[in-house]
Amino acid sequence: MRVKVNRRYVEVFEGAKVKHALLRYFVAKDLDRQLIPTVEVFDAWGHPIDHDAPLKENQKIKFKEKKI
Fold it and tell me: What percent of the chain clears pLDDT 90, i.e. is strictly above it?
């Protein structure tokens, strides 16, 4: 299934969670995967969502680094 992460579509398996889409995005962009637990994730309306939240086809999510 396709999911949009920070304006880029990634392919993930059916039943994937947010953390799987983030991993796919980080690999595609050649980013450090150890940073995945340090990001905050938001749905298309700006509401925070958990890394273990399930995804749906064509869902849009955004992430940014957590503020300390």
Answer: 94
